[in-house]
Amino acid sequence: MNTAVDTLGTALAQWLVGQRWYAGTDVGEVRVERATTLVHGDPALLHLLVQVDGERYQLLLGRRATLPDDLAHAWICDTPEGAVYAATHDGELMSRLLGALRDRAGGPGPAFDPEPGAHVVHGLPARVVAVEQSNTSLVFGDRHILKLYRRILPGPHPDVDLHRALHDVGAQHVARLQGVVSAHLDGVPTVLGVLQEYLPGCHDGWTLATTGDRDAFVPEAAALGRSVARVHAALARAFGARNPAVSDLNDTADHLHRRLTALGVPELADHEPAIRAAYDRLRTLRGPFVLQRVHGDLHLGQALHTNGRWTLIDFEGEPGRPLEERNAPRHALQDVATMLRSFDYAAHHGEPDPKWASALREAFCAGYAAVLDDPRDQPVLLHALELDKAVYEVAYERAHRPDWIGIPLGAITRILGGETA
Ligand SMILES: Nc1ncnc2c1ncn2[C@@H]1O[C@H](COP(=O)(O)OP(=O)(O)O)[C@@H](O)[C@H]1O
Ligand SMILES: O=P(O)(O)O[C@H]1O[C@H](CO)[C@@H](O[C@H]2O[C@H](CO)[C@@H](O)[C@H](O)[C@H]2O)[C@H](O)[C@H]1O
């Protein structure tokens, strides 16, 4: 397999640029940092950590002497040892993945360790989740879902730390963590993936909002508001919460300014002074506000509806932010703001329906206020955080879905015009 790895560089570079989870737009040299054969023979399964343009990525490659037709779409290149392909599409190899990783526990990694008390069934039929986002997820039977992170950052990982802490305080509305795939990298224990309880038959909030009856979704938005508030209360119990000093709001304003500069969004040149003025208004605010650990990337796609209740998933934080920033306490309203942005997306995707957006917003905030402080009591902070997310979204849509860029751009105009988005 090593010969194959040596000859893979160019083919991997071409393949990487086509992957939704690849953060760059171009690929320079792909350097294989660590290659581990998890399954020997034909088919073979290889785990790779590669360095590309200063970032580290995790890849799973399969190799077969003859590639069957149903894996033709996953082909990457031919090598003297056989065809190399994206192994996450290979159900046969993926059903052996967890067992192969478990057998490596105690080594430098990659290895899988179950959480204490978790009953993990190995060898179940495996399938890759069709919609790849920032990472790649595999479902085993109807029991487990393994999220494999693609861009790998050394250090404590919010998805693991938050789930463990939420479990310890008996939190509802989150999926149970069942195990962790990790490796020692740069001398630091590093999370490569998380195994969680799978919720069979669930629908994500985005699908429900955009394909179901719009009026029927309004009470669901209220229920979602209550669920988010309960998770916030559990996070505060688990990690503590504090009322920030005035200087913290200066920090928030400075942080938002820096993000606007760093995102460098040319489409917003005309709006920039008004956006910066909205951020500066934070400096005049007096609390009470709450700083605590939050979800960090909450939107309708991160809320799963099953058996009449909401479960929040993906506590990874915004994948583009450094881990240190994602692990820091933030305003609880950040999650509220990003969910409100999601309602705006749902209402302006297809035929715009501002009245429905407003109904969802009110219902969600009322639901949240039934458990914790009413987000509508902090309009200046809420709008600044919504603006920040919308600015990020303009950059995100330009990079990934240029046809959608009008949604966050329209929202920024409305927020600056004093309307609720
Ligand atoms: N516990 C779960 N049960 C059922 N489906 C899940 C679960 N967790 C995630 N999913 C599905 O997998 C998809 C991707 O998961 P997510 O954690 O959001 O990954 P990403 O970081 O790539 O966005 C979700 O949109 C959802 O459809
Ligand atoms: O789920 P991810 O962590 O990969 O989040 C990224 O992709 C999201 C889109 O899939 C993006 O969300 C934006 O579009 C959603 C509709 O598709 C909408 O509900 C969100 O409000 C909007 O921000 C997210 O911003 C990005 O980080």
Ordered list of secondary-structure elements with their pairings:
Elements: H1 2-17, E1 30-39, E2 44-52, E3 55-64, E4 75-79, E5 82-86, H2 91-102, E6 111-114, E7 126-128, E8 136-140, E9 144-148, H3 158-168, E10 177-185, E11 188-197, E12 203-204, H4 205-211, H5 214-239, E13 241-242, H6 246-263, H7 272-280, E14 291-292, E15 303-306, E16 309-312, H8 323-326, E17 330-331, H9 333-348, H10 354-369, H11 379-400, H12 406-416
Antiparallel strand pairs: 1-2, 2-3, 3-5, 4-5, 6-10, 7-8, 8-9, 9-11, 10-11, 12-15, 13-14, 14-17, 15-16
Helix pairs in contact: 3-5, 5-10, 6-11, 9-10, 9-11, 11-12
The chain binds adenosine-5'-diphosphate (ADP) and ligand LMANGFYV.
Pathway: Glycan biosynthesis; glycogen biosynthesis
Family: Belongs to the aminoglycoside phosphotransferase family.
Subunit structure: Monomer.
